[in-house]
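Onboarding guide, step 5: your first structure request.
Type a short instruction followed by the sequence, for example:

Predict the 3D structure of this protein.
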Amino acid sequence: MLKVSVIMTTHNSKESFLPGFASIAEQDYPDLEVVIIDGASTDGTAELIRKAERASAGRAGFTVRWISEPDGGIYEAMNKGIAGSSGDIIGVMNDRFTERDAISRMVAAIEASGADGVHTDLVYTDHGRCVRYWHMGDGDFRNGHYRALSFGWLPAHPTLYLRRSVYEKYGTYDTSLKSSSDYEYMLRILSGKKDRAVRLCYLPEVLVDMSYGGTSNGGFSGYFRNMAEAREALIREGYRPAWPVILCRILRTLDQYRQARRYDAVKTDLK
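The system replies with structure tokens like these:
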């Protein structure tokens, strides 16, 4: 059986830690490790982590490992978590799973397809209301890379679970980028510009619910920084000019806000 490591990064996250941790702890997957990297929180987050660790002690197939120390930001924390993990499959999770068998379904998809990883659909919610619905499709993998990358397609990073071998081959997150290192990393492993790309399988289901906000959504200044770093990442991978790809990405994002209304309407009809 493949072991799964879920990386959580926290910094003064007292309000959001417990719901996220509970979402992982409720998963039915039988070999699960949670690695928590806390950036020296001062609001009581570390105490909550310690309590969660004690409450989970002795539970078969579920382990908690954590550290609390200063770091250089979320991407450095993610790299620490990957280095300190022991799973065959690794994901980063600071949000909530929508189903108790989400990890089981993702692992089953990887094993059945022989792929290097898996991604699913994602919703961003604000007080229970869907504000963005990321329904991305499979990306059209051909000739060792994803053709749709040139048209702004990319998986939702919070839903991306990869085999450890991917990190061993391609390295980890570039900490010089402050808001788009996850975007750069996915371009690096999926573009196939320098080597045959990582192949993903896709589950067309909403398995992750993310609270609206985040590093790359910090108002206009955060948005423009995100776009500038995305342009740099695209140029690194040989996408010149980069702006047509960025424009396609913006259009796809706008469409995700439009689709959110449809997603909420469908949920209402099913109740």
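Each response can be followed by summary notes, for example: The chain has eight helices and eleven strands.
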